[in-house]
Every structure is written in structure tokens, then in C-alpha cells.
Write a structure and sequence with these properties.
This protein is mostly helical. The chain has helices spanning about 20-35, 40-60, 70-80, 80-110, 115-140, 155-160, 165-175, 175-190, 190-195, 200-210, 215-240; strands at about 145, 150. Keywords: Membrane, Transmembrane, Transmembrane helix.
Length: about 240
């Protein structure tokens, strides 16, 4: 393409050259185009904090899962009320960061996997929203404690709550984490030329180990091994 600069005497620039300052502007534009935007970098950084916060939550949680007998669950809260509130707050922050992780998956892989990426992101987001719902119920359980002991009648109340419709309903979005993580592993495997093969395996292993179905040490390890995997995927996809 011929670009011309007309000055007083009608000088014409050689073919293929740019007007004064255009070359620098084009180079800067190219550099910016290859650099991820600030919102995407922030989203990626937030995504990395999700497994970090889940690891911290499990490591500090003094109570068993809410589905355990009311006497065990409320008794553990009564014994460690401050630790329970702190750990549950970490769980809520982790769920919020998990939604950011889901959004990052959609944004990052939307062009290379336009059908799979939105499905993975929506399923993961539903799973993390299910976690947030359970956090609300757990904080209500904390209110059933008074002066280091369960309030009168609280055992019956909590037994009714965790066997009633509330847990049945919020369990459905929480269950979406299962296909969400399996499909996330498939998505990462599909992009192994960019992120490598190992993150896909770690996602499956970490999700199974961190499900809460195993001793606390296994659960903590499950979330902990996800930290380097998510960090690696975010770092490679931001650079790609």
C-alpha cells in the first residue's frame, strides 16, 4: 500500500512507509494487542486465589461437614466458634474466587472452544454458587451457639435444616461441580499444546481428593495441588 505525505512542495513518501509517527503508533498498537488486558489479568489473578483460599479454608475448619449428625457439627462449632467463622469466611471468599475462575475459563477459551468453554464455565460457576449457599447455612448454624454450647432446641433445628428441602435444593448446583471439573480437564487436555498435559490430570485428582470424602489431610492436599496447576494454566494462557 502506498502512503503519501504532502508537504508544501508536494513531497511523496516511498511506497510502504508510514506518515510521521505512524510507525511508532502501529508498533505500540501491536504490542498492546499481544498483551492481555488489565481486566483479564485481574480475572486470572483472582482465579489463582480460588484453590489457595479453599486450601486455607479446609486447613482451618474445625467442624465436620454440615451433613454430619447435628450433635457433632454444632458441638465442633461450640468448641471453636472463632475458628469456624474465620474458616467459613475463607470458604465464602474461595467460592467467589471460584466464580472468577469460571469466568476466566469462558473468556480465555471462548474462541478456541466456543461450545465447550461456556458449558464448563457455567457448570463451574453453579458449583461455586452452591458452595456459597452452604456457607450461608453454616453461618446460621454459628448463630445456634451461645456461650460455648448449642442453644436449647438447636440440635433439633439443625437436624431439620440439613435433612430438609434447603440442602436438597442447594445440593443440585453444588453437584454441577462434578461434570464441570471433568469437562474442565477435557478442555485443558484439548489445549495441552499450550498448557501441557499434567494440569488436566491434576484437576481430576485434586477435585476428587478435595471433595471432603476423605480425611482432612487428603482434602487439604487435593486443593493444594490445584494451586500450581491453576497458576500454570493462567500464566500460560495469559502469555499465549
Amino acid at each position: 500500500m502506498t502512503q503519501q505525505i504532502t508537504m508544501g512542495a508536494g513531497l511523496t513518501a516511498p511506497q510502504g512507509t508510514f506518515a510521521a509517527g505512524e510507525g511508532a503508533h502501529a508498533s505500540a498498537s501491536t504490542a498492546r494487542a499481544g498483551r492481555p488486558s488489565a481486566p483479564r489479568r485481574l480475572l486470572g489473578a483472582t482465579a489463582v486465589t480460588a484453590p489457595v483460599l479453599f486450601t486455607a479454608y479446609v486447613a482451618t475448619d474445625p467442624a465436620p461437614l454440615p451433613r454430619e449428625p447435628a450433635a457433632d457439627f454444632l458441638g465442633a462449632i461450640a468448641a471453636h466458634p472463632t475458628a469456624f467463622v474465620v474458616s467459613t469466611s475463607l470458604q465464602f471468599a474461595a467460592a467467589a474466587a471460584g466464580v472468577a475462575l469460571a469466568a476466566y475459563v469462558i473468556v480465555t477459551f471462548a474462541r478456541s472452544a466456543p461450545r465447550l468453554a461456556p458449558v464448563v464455565g457455567v457448570l463451574l460457576a453453579l458449583g461455586y454458587l452452591g458452595v456459597a449457599s452452604f456457607v450461608g447455612a453454616k453461618l446460621v448454624a454459628a448463630d445456634l451457639i451461645l456461650d460455648g454450647a448449642p442453644r436449647a432446641g438447636s440440635l433439633e433445628v439443625w437436624s431439620a435444616v440439613h435433612t430438609g428441602p434447603f440442602f436438597d435444593i442447594v445440593s443440585w448446583p453444588l453437584a454441577m461441580a462434578i461434570p464441570g471439573n471433568l469437562l474442565l480437564a477435557a478442555l485443558l487436555w484439548r489445549h495441552r499444546s499450550i498448557v501441557g498435559a499434567w494440569p488436566a490430570a491434576v484437576v481430576v485428582a485434586g477435585f476428587v481428593m478435595g471433595s471432603g470424602e476423605f480425611p482432612d489431610a487428603v482434602t487439604i492436599l487435593g486443593w493444594a495441588i490445584l494451586v500450581p496447576a491453576v497458576f500454570h494454566v493462567v500464566r500460560r494462557t495469559l502469555r499465549d
